[in-house]
């Protein structure tokens, strides 16, 4: 049976960079942000527009996986290992879809701040987004580890992280 692998971590942990590297190496990949997720209201479940400057938006908005669309993608690749790169809310609805989970873990809040500050765009550049990231980085990492994720320090050189992930998933790294 083919593997379904989730490589996750909070903003700035290297998910998009890794997705590009794995895709360039010929793996079937998904960046979860490319049409497989949407903002939803935490209580009503209605789809929300991305309005981070709106008062109270950050308190109710959740980045949610479209599990039906993700399953269709898996079904379209019945014999391929699929690598999904991304992070999201409502973990319990999604983690069971994966054979193995890899967590790109931040060692400290200071590191999160530095990585976000040095990014070119992306989630976390808005003041409210950074505050939100800092509020959930540790709980997210703890939940992923509780779900069985294998963790690696996301501040290691990207080639080391890539090789480590491939070794964890039993791919030849020579």
Entry keywords:
single chain, 174 residues, alpha/beta, Rossmann fold, five-stranded parallel beta sheet, two-stranded antiparallel ribbon, 6 helices, globular
- CATH homologous group name: P-loop containing nucleotide triphosphate hydrolases
Strand order of the largest sheet: 2-5-1-6-7
Number of domains: 1
The CATH topology comes to Rossmann fold
Distance between the termini: 24 Å
CATH architecture: 3-Layer(aba) Sandwich
List the secondary-structure elements in sequence, H or E.
Answer: EHEEHEHEEHHEH
Share of β-strand residues = 15-25%
Uncertain segments are: none
Characterization of the model:
This protein is an alpha/beta fold. It contains six helices and seven strands; from the N terminus they run βαββαβαββααβα. It has one domain (4-168): P-loop containing nucleotide triphosphate hydrolases (Rossmann fold, 3-Layer(aba) Sandwich), CATH 3.40.50. Helix 4 (109-117) crosses helix 5 (127-146). It is 37% helix and 19% strand. The strands form two sheets. It has a five-stranded parallel sheet, sandwiched between helices.
List the helices and strands and how they pair.
Blueprint: E1 4-8, H1 15-24, E2 28-31, E3 37-41, H2 57-60, E4 61-65, H3 67-76, E5 82-85, E6 100-105, H4 109-117, H5 127-146, E7 150-153, H6 158-168
Parallel strand pairs: 1-5, 1-6, 2-5, 6-7
Antiparallel strand pairs: 3-4
């Amino acid at each position: 049976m083919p593997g379904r692998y989730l490589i996750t971590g909070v903003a700035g942990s290297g998910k998009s960079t890794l997705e590009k590297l794995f895709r360039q190496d010929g793996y079937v990949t998904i960046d979860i942000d490319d049409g497989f997720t949407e903002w939803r209201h935490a209580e009503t479940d209605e789809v929300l527009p991305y309005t981070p400057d709106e008062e109270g938006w950050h308190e109710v908005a959740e980045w949610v996986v479209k599990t039906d669309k993700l399953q269709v993608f898996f079904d379209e690749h019945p014999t391929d290992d699929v690598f999904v790169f991304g992070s999201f809310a409502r973990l319990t609805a999604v983690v069971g879809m994966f054979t193995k989970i890899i967590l790109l873990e931040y060692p400290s809040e200071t590191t999160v701040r530095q990585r976000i500050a040095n990014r070119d765009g992306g989630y976390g550049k808005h003041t409210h987004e950074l505050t939100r990231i800092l509020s959930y980085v540790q709980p997210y990492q703890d939940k992923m580890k509780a779900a069985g994720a294998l963790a690696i320090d996301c501040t290691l050189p990207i080639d080391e992280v890539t090789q480590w992930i491939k070794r964890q998933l039993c791919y030849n790294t020579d």
